[in-house]
Amino acid sequence: MISVKVYSRGPEVLVAACDSDILGRTFRSKSLKIHVSEGFYKGDSGGEDMLVSRLEMCTIANLVGKKTLEIAIRHGFVDPACVLDIDGIPHAQMARLM
Questions:
Q1: If DSSP codes are grouped into helix, strand and coil, which group holds residue 77?
Q2: pTM of the model
Q3: 23 with 64: CB under 8 angstroms?
Q4: What average pLDDT does the structure give for the chain?
Q5: Residue 33, pLDDT above cutoff 90
Q6: Percentages helix, strand, coil for the chain, rounded to the nearest 5?
């Protein structure tokens, strides 16, 4: 399952999405750290269709987790070359012009 939370402010729509099984966890590498905060990422739970529909409407996205990034890459939202690896967990941000 994937957790997706949508934030709207003016014309901007931010999607925060992560694999549900990493909610609340912190990951570190040599120079990077990410905390997958329930306050920021916990929202609707769903699968590929839900994530893709939310990404289609967003202007900005913050994505964490193997399943989440696999879907975003497969559907052309994220270039695999732009994905960071933080302690074995993929993380990417994206921005789209609307």
A1: coil
A2: 0.95
A3: no
A4: 96
A5: yes
A6: 30, 40, 30
Enter the tokens of residue 84. Answer: 């960071």
All structural domains of the chain with their residue ranges: 2-95
Calpha distance 47→44 (Å, rounded): 10
Spatial contact of 54 and 9, defined as CB atoms under 8 Å apart? no
Name the residue with tokens 């729509």. Answer: 13
Distance (Å, whole) CA 57 – CA 69: 17
- pLDDT tens, position by position, 39-74: 999 999 999 999 999 999 999 999 999 999 999 999
Q: Please give the CATH topology (third level) of the domain spanning 2-95.
A: 3.30.1860
Question: Helix 48-57 to helix 66-74 angle, to the nearest 10 degrees?
Answer: 60
Q: What is residue 71's DSSP assignment?
A: H
**What pLDDT is attached to residue 96?**
83
Count of positions (residues) in the chain: 98
Full DSSP string of 25-69: -EEE-SS-EEE--HHHH--EEE-HHHHHHHHHH-SEEEEESHHHH
